[in-house]
Write a structure and sequence with these properties.
By secondary structure, the protein is an alpha+beta fold. It has six helices and seven strands; from the N terminus they run βααααβββαβαββ. A seven-stranded mixed beta sheet has the order 1-2-3-4-5-7-6. A hairpin with a 4-residue loop joins strand 3 and strand 4. It is globular. The N and C termini lie far apart (32 Å).
């Protein structure tokens, strides 16, 4: 497994996040983004990223390759519900760094943080049904397939199914 460093967003991350969020190729994988975002939009997002997950209900963390400290991706906890103790997880690895184990390492770190630090009981990952790589990644990370939402995601003029995976905190069962 690749060694990664998970860290908070910094102002210097604006350019790389801007590039990722405006890459139309990633939109087909079920991204919630469906329009170009301005650098000012991204700057506001980064500026507000230091707010508490209990206030914002989300947290984006950057993924750096451990040896070079090159930023290779980001991982998000979002739709955090502090009452029911669940959240969604999403991940993006820059096209240039995919298939090197960074995603698996980052998910393992974030699952540990979510379960052990935040006390989350369940994490949910969703993806468009055609995203086989994401499905395999979450299965390998111990997420269990729990259902399909049919014709749930619009990609261009087509509708696609959304797959739902979850991972339960073994210390919070019952």
């Amino acid at each position: 497994m690749a060694e990664v460093v998970i860290r908070a967003m910094e102002p210097s991350d604006v350019d790389v996040i801007f590039a990722w969020e405006n890459d139309v190729e990633t939109w087909k994988d079920g991204s919630v983004n469906y329009k170009p975002l301005s650098k000012a939009d991204i700057q506001r997002f980064v500026d507000n990223s230091g707010l508490d997950i209990y206030q914002e209900r989300q947290m984006r963390l950057m993924i750096d390759e451990a040896k070079t400290r090159k930023t290779v991706g980001c991982v998000d906890l979002f739709d955090f519900d502090p009452f029911s103790l669940h959240a969604n997880i999403g991940i993006l690895i820059d096209k240039r760094y995919r298939r090197n184990g960074y995603a698996l390492s980052a998910i393992e770190w974030v699952v540990g943080y979510a379960f052990d630090v935040l006390g989350i009981k369940a994490l949910c990952a969703t993806m468009v049904s055609s995203n086989e790589i994401s499905r395999q990644l979450f299965e390998k990370s111990g997420f269990e397939f729990v259902g399909t939402r049919h014709d749930w995601i619009r990609i261009g003029n087509e509708m696609a199914d959304e797959l739902i995976f979850e991972k339960l905190n073994p210390t919070k069962r019952g």
